[in-house]
Amino acid sequence: MPFTPATNRRLVTAALVGPASIWLFVFLVLPFIAIIVFAFGERAPEGGYQAAFTFAQFANLGSRAAAFKNTLILAPIGAFACLLVAYPVAYYLALKASAKYRLLLVSLVVVPFWTSLLVRTYAWMYILGARGIPHLLEMVGIENVRLLNTPGAVLLGIVYGYLPLMIMPIYVSLEKLDRRLLEASADLGARPLSTFFGITLPLSLPGVMTGIALVTILLLGEYLIPQLLGGGKVFFIGNALVDLFLQSRNWPFGSAIAVTLVVVVVIVLLIAMRIAWRVAGTRQVDLV
């Protein structure tokens, strides 16, 4: 019996979506279920997991308050700092750069991703270390300047490492902007600043919100930058997880922190999507 067109469409959809769904279930859903099970267990005497059902691990989250505090403060600040740097760059690429060189300039934005983040972070360790900028300042009479192992160094590493992820969504949003709106605004006598705040910025807000959500979510689980540029003095939740799973081998407590982190990420994502969709609905633009 021949299949109906509707059945054919469902079969094609299942064939296309099925492999990805299986992949996500095996490598995302199942591990997360295991983490949830661990979170309600107890630490075995020799370390690891021991079957139990207790909320003690969640009740003990306050012992890692410093990691949560650093993450929940520095991650949004880092995302906002990325935005301050990324928006002018994206604006120039989308609206000011010559079409002849635009592709080259956009490619240069992505070039840092061709090098390992570890290598780039080690480079900043040298620049901010005793033989870098502090040594140059000492040569001109400014002594006892410490840049490495500070929150400022971590923020600098965050901006450098995640800047391309903020630039690209904003660039896509601005590149889709109807230039006739800008021309009409100029023809009606609006000043450039009024045109920017009245047209350009509102229509690019979905890209801005996408960039902020993307960078913030990744920063909530960041480990490498705080570890190297913070020198063990600026702990993120990712650093706490590494310590609990690999050093103290307290898998249930580490799992409880991981579950809490996932909940925070979901909340941030839902808030960002809600704001972006509301802006997209009111401004009639697409969410990038």
From TrEMBL:
Superkingdom: Bacteria
Residues in ABC transmembrane type-1 domain copies: 68-272
Membrane topology value: Multi-pass membrane protein
Record localization: Cell membrane
Regions that span the bilayer: 20-41, 73-94, 103-127, 147-172, 193-219, 253-277
Protein family according to the UniProt entry: Belongs to the binding-protein-dependent transport system permease family. CysTW subfamily.
Protein name, UniProt field: ABC transporter permease
Main location, first listed in the record: membrane
Statement: the UniProt record of this protein carries the keyword Cell wall biogenesis/degradation: no
Keyword Transport among record annotations: yes
CDD domains, sorted: TM_PBP2 (cd06261)
Record PROSITE patterns: ABC_TM1 (PS50928)
Gene3D superfamilies the record matches: MetI-like
Keywords: Cell membrane, Membrane, Transmembrane, Transmembrane helix, Transport
Pfam families per the UniProt record, alphabetical: BPD_transp_1 (PF00528)
